[in-house]
């Protein structure tokens, strides 16, 4: 085992644990120490469960000592986005309306982490109910980008991406409704995969937009993402939208990493104008590396993608307005009584609670969704957006008739400054312009680091998209590109990130 | 059609059961109008003849056998309730006075 446990990949940690060179208690403690040292600055975590994580680690160490055969990831600690229900651990979704809520059950993917023997370090920060691209909409304050503490770590899963980038956890769980795994990965120099819709159970994932939400892995390497993907993926009878098939062979694909003879399409509509020069330059270099590795690269046009952002910001608020109706102050969460009303009705209590418990962005999207679904406007907005969704899906089908995977920059810019886009919702929404089409069509996507932009020295990401259920292709291509880039850089990109100052060390 | 009046937003907030303050209403009218103008772009996509798509996977009627299985007990279900009484959720009055 390397002397620096926290800088090791999850795969390296798993190997060292299996060879008994290190114990899970040591690995888990090292990460808890790192969290104690740097999370005051980064604020990736909303809740740290040192006791629970160490207990889980001890249990794995005992079982290993007893000669039990363990899961390959047993003893590797992980951080979980605060949108997943965790029995006995607070789950807030970044919202005041769920402050202090402790779920009575585990999400299926959390059960799978526990069954694999992976200690849960804590719950990571996020934009409230996953609505945002910067974590600035968290009711508990923003997470900061480990590359520059004055900048955003992406969102909504900025806590998970920052935790991994700051070496506070080797792995984290994210959820991706319009890019919330991939965009944070891009702006923090980490890896993130949104699996095929239905590839990972949504049971226990607090729903934002049910037809778009998908949980997936956050990591520092492509292989680590694959290892986690295979722990959480596969059919779950508790989720009726779960695909009735085993998890795809992503680990094999990541180990194989081969693009010879593969056809790769560069999406014409996702690039060019509106994309930062450094983002474009790193993207073009990555594409060239894939060509050098034997892939055939062509340009592919998906004209309907130009309407994806508009369709998404109708479909998502519509579904969210319905999903968030459950926060009614009756069964769980906050209950606030309206001021100056004697003997208020349930409806008055509900309205007062939702005003007090929801933040601005959540209110904005609920009201937008309420409008889009109102009679008289339904056909012009929600109905039309659903038709556009069909066109986008058709564009993907036509593209995948010609190529095996599609590529684009993950996000149009590098990490922007905290506060920069907070007062301009449309500017914030544009961060997801390249990631949204995959959610609308349900296809899988991955972001991995493509370098740093020379104009600001901040990380850039490249996105790979594959047909539904062909998640393994992402890992095949991602692994090749990662290897070529790391060789070129002379080491992992995160090794060049500035050191965080440890507090109280 | 893409612009919303303050009364429209107040009405929508009522439908959504969010008791917005006057200051929140003022701010939201402008923001929502900008967003609506932008998302109205879906009307120019030439999608009139496309069938609407509600879901990425062609799934219909996923069922399971109707078998009794363990579920949360009343104590676990009520543990996080704002108020409970007699093993039930306790809620404010649900009917108007008259």
CATH class categorisation of chain A = Alpha Beta
- Give the count of structural domains of chain A: 1
Uncertain regions spanning at least 5 consecutive residues of chain A:
none
Number of helices of chain A: 16
* Most residues in contact: chain pair: A-B, 74 and 58 residues
In helices, the fraction of residues of chain A equals 25-40%
Helix share, percent of chain B: 25-40%
What would CATH call the class of one domain in chain B?
Mainly Alpha
Q: Element order, helices and strands of chain A? A: HHEHEHEHEHEEHHEHEHHHHEHHEEH
User: Helix/strand-derived class of chain A?
Assistant: alpha/beta
Q: What's the architecture of chain A, going by CATH? A: Alpha-Beta Complex
Which sequence of strands runs across the widest sheet of chain B? 1-2
Question: What's the main sheet of chain B like?
Answer: 2 strands, antiparallel
Distance from N terminus to C terminus of chain B (CA atoms, Å) equals: 38 Å
Strand fraction band of chain B?
under 5%
CA-based gyration radius of chain A:
22 Å
CATH topology of chain A: Amidase signature (AS) enzymes
Mean pLDDT of chain B: 92
User: Residue ranges of chain B: pLDDT <50 for 5 or more in a row?
Assistant: none
- Label the overall shape of chain A: globular
Walk me through this protein's architecture:
The complex is a heterodimer of chains A (505) and B (98). Chain A is of the alpha/beta class. Chain A has 16 helices and eleven strands. Chain A has a single domain, classed as Alpha-Beta Complex (Amidase signature (AS) enzymes), CATH 3.90.1300.10. By secondary structure, chain B is mainly alpha-helical. Chain B is 34% helix and 4% strand. A two-stranded antiparallel ribbon of chain B has the order 1-2. The mean pLDDT of chain B is 92. Chains A and B meet through α10, α11, α12, α13 and α14 of A and α1 and α2 of B.
């Amino acid at each position: 085992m390397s002397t620096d446990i926290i800088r090791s990949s999850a795969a390296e940690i798993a190997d060292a644990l299996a060879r008994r060179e290190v114990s899970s208690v040591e690995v888990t403690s090292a990460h808890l120490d790192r969290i104690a040292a740097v999370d005051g600055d980064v604020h990736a975590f909303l809740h740290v469960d040192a006791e629970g994580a160490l207990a889980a680690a001890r249990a794995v160490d005992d079982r290993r000592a007893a000669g039990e055969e363990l899961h390959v990831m047993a003893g590797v600690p992980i951080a979980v986005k605060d949108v997943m229900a965790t029995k006995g651990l607070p789950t807030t979704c970044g919202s005041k309306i769920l402050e202090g809520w402790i779920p009575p059950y585990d999400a299926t993917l959390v059960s799978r982490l526990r069954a694999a023997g992976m200690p849960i370090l804590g719950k990571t920060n996020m934009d409230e109910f996953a609505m945002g691209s910067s974590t600035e909409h968290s009711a508990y304050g923003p997470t900061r980008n480990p590359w520059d503490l004055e900048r955003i770590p992406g969102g909504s899963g900025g806590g998970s991406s920052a935790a991994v980038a700051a070496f506070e956890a080797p792995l984290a769980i994210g959820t991706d409704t319009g890019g919330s795994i991939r965009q944070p990965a891009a702006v923090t120099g980490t890896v993130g995969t949104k699996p095929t819709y239905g590839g990972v159970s949504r049971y226990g994932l607090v729903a934002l937009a049910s037809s778009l939400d998908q949980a997936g892995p956050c990591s520092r390497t492509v292989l680590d993402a694959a290892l986690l993907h295979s722990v959480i993926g596969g059919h779950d009878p508790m989720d009726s939208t779960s695909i009735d098939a085993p998890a795809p062979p992503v680990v094999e694909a990541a180990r194989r990493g081969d693009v010879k003879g593969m056809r790769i399409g560069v999406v014409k509509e996702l690039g060019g104008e509106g994309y930062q020069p450094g983002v474009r330059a790193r993207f073009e270099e990555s594409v060239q590396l894939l060509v050098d590795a034997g892939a055939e690269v062509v340009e592919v046009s998906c004209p309907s993608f130009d309407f994806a952002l508009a369709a998404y910001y109708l479909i998502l608020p519509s579904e969210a307005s319905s999903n968030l109706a459950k926060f009614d102050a009756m069964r769980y969460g906050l209950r606030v009584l309206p001021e100056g009303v004697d003997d208020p009705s349930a409806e008055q209590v509900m309205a007062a609670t939702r005003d007090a418990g929801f933040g601005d962005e959540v209110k904005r999207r609920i009201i937008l969704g309420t409008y889009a679904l109102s009679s008289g406007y339904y056909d012009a907005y929600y109905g039309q957006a659903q038709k556009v969704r069909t066109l986008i899906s058709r564009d993907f089908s036509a593209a995948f008739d010609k190529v095996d995977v599609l590529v684009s920059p993950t996000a149009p810019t590098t990490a922007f400054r905290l506060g920069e886009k907070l007062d301009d919702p449309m500017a914030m929404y544009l961060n997801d312009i390249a990631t949204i089409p995959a959610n609308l069509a349900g296809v899988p996507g991955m972001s991995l680091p493509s370098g740093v932009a020379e104009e600001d020295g901040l990380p850039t990401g490249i996105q790979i998209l594959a047909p539904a259920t062909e998640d393994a292709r992402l890992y095949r291509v991602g692994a090749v590109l990662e290897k070529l880039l790391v060789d070129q850089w002379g080491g992992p990109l995160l090794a060049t990130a500035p050191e965080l100052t440890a507090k109280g060390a | 059609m893409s612009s919303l009046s303050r009364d429209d937003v107040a009405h929508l907030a009522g439908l959504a059961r969010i008791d917005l303050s006057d200051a929140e209403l003022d701010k939201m009218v402008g923001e929502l109008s900008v967003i609506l103008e932008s998302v109205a772009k879906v009307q120019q996509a030439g999608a009139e003849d496309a069938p609407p798509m509600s879901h990425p996977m062609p799934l219909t009627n996923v069922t399971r056998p109707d078998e009794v299985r363990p579920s949360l007990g009343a104590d676990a279900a009520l543990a996080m309730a704002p108020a409970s009484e007699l093993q039930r959720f306790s809620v404010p009055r649900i009917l108007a006075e008259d």
